[in-house]
């Protein structure tokens, strides 16, 4: 086990909080030794949300927010190590994604808030951070990055498989038995569902899609959502709250709409855009393996299964990996790649000019 212990920290577009995992890469498959989820305190979540759009004094606010975030990350790492009875010195590194506040590969950058120096200082552990910039510098999307790890954890020698991550944004990976891995963001996952639930239920999510399930989706509104050019763009492609945000939603939704019908239509939008993208780009897959928080939205999983029938649509749990932990584990793996000076990106996914070692290393 010595030298093979890494932690992964993931806080995604959903802004629900941070997942920390402890992974032993000396085991095959890698063993997840512990997991901590910490919800963001409300003021931190509110500021992270506010920083998704340009505003007054945003450089200063961004820096303060990165510090607060790094303290929350350090708290999650402390709790993780205490629960697993592992000393900080036993960890090779923490792979920290940071919090995306701008994703603009078209303009040559992708910004994840984080203060890796502070995180290294607070934990006493080496930190690897800023995984996306190098891929963007090499002409890539800088996203999605999880497909390389999906290939390590979930590829099968005898069948083609698609992996769906239902985070704030949804991304699909096609793992073919005998061909390069492909993958891309299909569009919104949970982010618009959460946003609308917050607005109309005052809750961070529509638990299990129960509110959405009480109304039928509106066909006209669904077509309006699906008319966005993003859905027709061929891969490589990636997106975020830069596009799929409240302003986008309100451009399509008339104020007189029944909010419950809107929620139901947003759920259908996630399911339809994934199903359409799967048919267009992952047709050879013999099953769809789903991870991310959206797996717990029973209604969403039901709609996905119905739209893709008879394709088996199943949680990654069935393949030995907790769906909530796949992304954080991917960043532990990316940190390990960085320390080994091995590439972390897949040019067949991101469109980068070539394989690149991703991340900047902050010594303990
Ligand atoms: N029981 C549930 N019912 C509906 N949605 C859920 C449930 N549990 C989690 N989710 C969704 O999953 C999201 C978190 O997923 P996650 O994979 O952490 O996304 P991200 O990587 O963007 O942070 C929540 O914001 C919520 O939308
Ligand atoms: Mg999350």
Features:
20% strand; globular; binds magnesium ion; 364 residues; Nucleotidyltransferase, domain 5; binds adenosine-5'-diphosphate; five-stranded mixed sheet; alpha/beta; 2 domains; 13 helices
Question: What report would you give on this structure?
Answer:
The strands form three sheets. A six-stranded mixed beta sheet has the order 3-2-1-4-7-13. The protein has a five-stranded mixed beta sheet with strand order 10-9-8-11-12, sandwiched between helices. It has a two-stranded antiparallel ribbon with strand order 5-6. The chain is globular and about 55 Å long. The chain has two domains: about 5-140 and about 325-360, ATPase, nucleotide binding domain (Nucleotidyltransferase, domain 5), CATH 3.30.420; about 145-310, ATPase, nucleotide binding domain (Nucleotidyltransferase, domain 5). With about 375 residues, it is an alpha/beta fold. It has helices spanning about 40-50, 60-85, 115-125, 135, 145-155, 190-200, 210-215, 220-225, 245-250, 260-280, 300-310, 325-340, 345-350; strands spanning about 5-10, 15-25, 30-40, 95, 100-105, 110-115, 125-130, 160-165, 170-175, 180-190, 290, 315, 360. Strand 9 (about 170-175) and strand 10 form a beta hairpin. The model has no long low-confidence stretch (mean pLDDT about 95). Bound molecules: adenosine-5'-diphosphate and magnesium ion (MG). Magnesium ion binds near residues 11 and 293.
